[in-house]
Design goal:
The protein is an all-alpha fold. The protein has 2 domains: about 5-115, Endonuclease III, domain 1 (Orthogonal Bundle); about 125-190, Helix-hairpin-Helix base-excision DNA repair enzymes (C-terminal) (Endonuclease Iii, domain 2), CATH 1.10.1670. The chain has helices at about 5-10, 15-25, 30-45, 50, 55-65, 70-85, 95-100, 105-115, 125-135, 145-155, 160-170. The longest helix has 19 residues, at about 70-85. The protein binds a DNA duplex (11 and 11 nucleotides) through helix 1, helix 2, helix 3, helix 6 and helix 8.
Length: about 200
DNA sequence: AAAACGGGGGC
DNA sequence: GCCCCAGTTTT
């Protein structure tokens, strides 16, 4: 099973900055599309200093297929500027500082901590949110509520592996539409809440 | 709470 | 052709 792109980047010993940028590119975007776009971008620039050497429109053109390319290219440049100005050109390794960056929300911040620094983070995206609610493990409306619930319920030692596992599972088995329940190892524990069609 | 940001891929 | 995607910001 192919690894999600951001995970793959972290496992190739890429920098926290690359994890951060790849995560920004991946927002609301299919994994395969993010894969090619991040590769193109990193060939041109993979540090905040190098990013600032590119024009807004240049970045937008490189990442074009990911969608939201105007927002994302501005975010990349703005984040790069702040990293140089306030953090000596490196990515901060605490949640509060990361959340203060424009364009970085809870999911991105926690993912940078987890994959960029091997630190604690419960990263709740649509996959983690959906799977936990289907299982009946949590009953939450927003991803942030799911994050807080998991911090209480899930043993710390599993937090880092947990996200990668569920995202991979969410992309390949417990899909948003027509999940392949016959291929699911934890099917017997699942309440299938909100699952209409399954295979 | 809902809209806006967006092209690509699945069906 | 229609709907969703490792979200976040703005209204």
């Amino acid at each position: 099973m192919e690894l999600p792109i951001v995970t793959e980047i972290s496992q190739n010993r890429r920098s926290p900055f690359e994890v951060l940028i790849a995560t920004i590119l991946s927002l609301r975007t299919k994994d395969e599309v993010t894969r090619s776009a991040s590769k193109r971008l990193f060939e041109k620039a993979n540090t905040p200093q190098q990013m600032l050497g590119l024009e807004d429109s240049e970045i937008a053109e490189l990442i074009y297929p990911v969608g939201f390319y105007n927002t994302k290219s501005r975010t990349i440049l703005e984040v790069s500027r702040v990293l140089i100005k306030d953090y000596g050109g490196s990515v901060p390794d605490d949640l509060d500082s990361l959340l203060r960056l424009k364009g970085v929300g809870r999911k991105t911040a926690n993912l940078v901590l987890t994959l960029g620094y091997g630190k604690l983070g419960v990263c709740v995206d649509t996959h983690v949110h959906r799977i936990n609610n289907r299982l009946g493990y949590v009953k939450t409306k927003t991803p942030e509520q799911t994050e807080m619930a998991l911090r209480e319920k899930l043993p710390k030692q599993y937090w880092i592996q947990y996200n990668d596992l569920l995202v991979t599972w969410g992309q390949n088995v417990c899909k948003p539409i027509s999940p392949i329940c016959s291929k699911c190892d934890i099917s017997i524990y699942c309440k299938r809440i909100g699952v209409t069609k399954s295979r």
